[in-house]
Design brief:
heterodimer; A: Rossmann fold; Rossmann fold; 10 helices; 37% helix; B: 15 helices; 72% helix; globular
Chain lengths: 372, 371
């Protein structure tokens, strides 16, 4: 009978095998239908010892969760390229939850894609999602890392002998200014005579300028530096090479400066990603606006380096314990900017969640440098 | 045979090789096309070895390239969209190259063109959108053209090397751009990404009907064709090519060499400025650091790959756009780092430049005489 149909069982099986093989070549690693596909998009390299690595490390943990498939793309510029990357993840990989992690991805690119694909969930790092302006399948998350910078400042204040500390920053925007001001306020809570020289490099990833800035700070007698740039690797290595101390940022850089690394302000994004993915798996609607600080586990501090004194550890741990209780305000009046104007009057205090801090446009007293 | 008759016969042969060899123009065109294609194949072969050394399958790689760049309408749109700005920035290199100038400062012309096009919308909110768009385009062209013209002036009037001048001016242009975007022209509401004011939704260029593509692609193709006509079919273009071929000879012929240099720079810069305007009007809606995305530098690569021929810029931009479009898929499916794509582009660039040295060396492509 099999002969009568014209196709033998063997030929059919062979054909099926070849067909399957051809499919496998055409689409290597096809997504399992049951898996939830989660896409991560980074603006820089995944191993930058900084902003992108902090996200990629959390993505690597997400990969190990059952029923989750992770797709990642690095070095995606904040142009239409990111729209195409999101679209490609949705169309070709079947992603249903996307985390575009760079600030400039939000408007207009992510909002456009969210309108085009209403069934896909988009959660963006750093933006300010607003219920009346933005679609419900979008949202934003961020961490109050200024508190961790404040703790770095306290360690720096205890460690500095020259009473001059330094900060290498990308751009004078609110998120950066909060960090600079928190760092110096931490240091000055130890010794009010400390000053902080700030240098703006002008962009997020300028390795040559970052190295020059670090060297110039060291030449001026600065003995503790930290930064807010995308990849602190160059700054940390240069500081170690110059024999000065350094506080890390974004991720743990202690390996790059075994002698001079004091502590650092790090992101702990897995808290956020786990929350969103658990919500998605449980079939619940995802939160649209998620923020948290040290006590929520959104940010953390690096382990103390060998150069941190017992006194500094004790003081910093005590303040950290206070912060963990909640309601701790770093920015409280009376507070003057570095031109002598009162920016927060006496009796007023802003906790980390205060909306006023999101539009900060000053450098506090003790910072040497200007915004323009 | 008398001596005079012999000379006559020789003259007839050398004066009209085209008559004697009717197929030479076809073979010449074939030679132009065959060079880059063979180079692409060689580059792919070399890159396959590189992949094998990494323990990855070249077959997977090329099938993913196809899937990500051309296989579906989404992939094709992705490729063409990426090619659109490159068409115009490549002209910023290719047009001055007709005069032998190597201009590599297109990046600043894109940024300043985009910025100028947003500035003109500020007093025109609520005006008739097509008018605003035309003014935006003119402002973009003027800013880009004016910026590269500085390089042309320095070259023509002071003999300063245009390559160095354009590169250094590009850094200055970008610094001016950042200064204005982060200061005078900043929209105070753009907190963490300093930007200018929005040009207004009404003034945005919509997609080409029936597609997801923005009109920049069509504009780019049309401008490439116009530049080709200008260079190869007009007396102005002929003067430019003569100047590029031999500057002294052009001067002896009485050609206005200095004016031609400046004009070519204005045209090239205008193209890059227009790319900036389209980027703002079709995609970004405002000017900010996203305009400095490397389009100007990618244009240099494409212009050289196209051997400075405006028509060849069109397929080359599509090839580079396709590599960019597939790049993400390669990262996601094969766990290759982003730099892999840069390695492939490097292989292609070297292979195509090397293939240029073979032009005119293979006898089969050369004119033949009937004997």
């Amino acid at each position: 009978m099999t002969e009568a149909s014209g196709i033998s069982r063997r030929t059919l099986l062979q054909g099926a095998a070849i067909g399957t093989a051809a499919l496998a070549v055409g689409a290597p690693r096809p997504a399992q239908a049951a898996d939830t596909v989660v896409g991560f998009i980074y603006v820089g390299p995944k191993d930058d010892y900084g902003y992108n690595q902090a996200h990629a490390e959390a993505a690597a943990m997400v990969k190990k969760m059952p029923g989750i498939k992770v797709v990642e793309e690095e070095k995606v510029p904040e142009t239409d390229d990111v729209s195409k990357t999101m679209q490609s993840m949705i169309e070709l990989d079947g992603a249903s939850l996307l985390f575009p992690t760079s600030y400039g991805y939000f408007d207009p690119y992510m909002l456009r894609m969210a309108a085009k694909y209403p069934k896909v969930q988009f959660r963006h790092c750093g933006g300010l999602w607003q219920k009346d302006k933005h679609p419900m399948n979008t949202g934003s998350y961020f961490g109050y890392i200024g508190m961790a910078q404040y703790l770095s400042g306290i360690v720096a204040g205890h460690t500095s002998k020259t009473k001059k500390i330094g900060f290498v920053a990308a751009k004078p925007i609110p998120q950066v200014l909060v960090n600079i001001n928190s760092f110096i306020l931490g240091a000055r809570s130890v010794d009010p005579s400390i000053t902080c020289q700030v240098i703006f490099t002008g962009d997020w990833s300028m390795p040559v300028k970052e190295a020059e800035a670090t060297n110039s700070l060291a030449d001026q007698g600065v003995d503790v530096v930290t930064c807010h740039v995308d990849g602190p690797k160059v700054l940390v290595e240069t500081a170690e090479h110059r024999g000065i101390y350094v506080c890390g940022y974004h991720a743990d850089q202690s390996k790059l400066a075994p002698k001079g690394y004091l502590t650092g302000a790090e992101w702990n994004w897995i808290t956020v990603y786990k929350k969103f993915i658990d919500e998605a798996k449980a079939g619940k609607p995802l939160d649209n606006f998620v923020r948290g600080g040290l006590s929520e586990g959104f940010v953390k501090t690096s382990a103390y380096g060998p150069a941190v004194s017992a006194e500094a550890r004790k003081h910093t741990d005590a303040v950290k314990a206070e912060i963990m209780k909640g309601g701790y305000a770093v920015f409280k009046g009376p507070l003057k900017d570095n031109k002598g104007n009162v920016v927060i009057p006496a009796g007023k205090a802003f906790v980390e969640t205060a909306i006023e801090l999101e539009s900060m446009n000053y450098l506090v007293e003790g910072v040497v440098g200007s915004l323009s | 045979m008398s001596g005079a008759a012999g000379i006559k016969q020789q003259a007839a042969q050398s004066a009209s090789p085209a008559l004697a060899d009717r197929f030479y123009p076809i073979r010449r065109a074939l030679e132009t096309v065959a060079g880059p294609i063979v180079a692409l194949l060689l580059a792919s072969a070399a890159f396959s070895l590189f992949l094998l050394a990494l323990g990855k399958s070249p077959a997977d790689f090329f099938s993913l390239m196809w899937l990500g760049a051309f296989a579906s309408s989404f992939s094709l749109t992705n490729t063409l969209q990426r090619a659109a700005p490159l068409l115009l920035t490549a002209l910023c290199v290719a047009v001055p190259a007709q005069l032998g100038l190597v201009i590599i400062g297109g990046e600043a012309a894109v940024a300043l063109g985009g910025l100028a096009s947003t500035v003109v919308t500020l007093p025109l909110q609520g005006a008739w959108p097509p008018l605003v768009q035309i003014l935006m385009a003119l402002a973009g062209i003027a800013a880009g053209g004016g910026w590269i013209a500085i390089t042309g002036l320095l070259r023509a009037k002071r003999g300063i090397n245009e390559t160095v001048a354009s590169l250094v001016l590009s850094y200055i242009g970008i610094a001016i751009f950042n200064h204005l975007v982060e200061g005078l022209l900043r929209d105070p509401a753009s907190l963490n990404k300093p930007s200018t004011y929005d040009i207004g939704a009404a003034n945005m260029l919509g997609p080409i009907p029936g597609t997801d593509l923005h009109p920049g692609l069509l504009v780019g193709i049309v401008v490439c064709i116009l530049c080709w006509v200008l260079i190869s079919r007009t007396s102005l273009g002929f003067s430019m090519r003569v100047t590029g071929g031999n500057l002294r000879a052009a001067q002896l012929q009485g050609l206005p060499v200095n004016r031609l240099i400046i004009l070519a720079c204005v045209i090239g810069g205008g193209c890059a400025g227009l790319a900036g305007m389209i980027e703002v009007a079709a995609i970004q809606g405002r000017a900010n650091s996203s305009l400095i995305a490397g389009y100007g530098y990618a244009g240099i690569l494409i212009a050289f790959l196209s051997r400075q021929n405006p028509l060849a810029i069109i397929p080359m931009s599509v090839v580079l756009g396709g590599i960019g479009a597939a790049g993400g898929l390669l990262q996601r499916r094969m766990d290759l780092p982003d730099a892999t794509v840069a390695v492939l582009e490097g292989f292609i660039f070297v292979a195509i430049l090397a293939s240029e040295t073979m032009q005119g060396r293979i006898a089969w492509f050369q004119p033949r005489s009937k004997s």
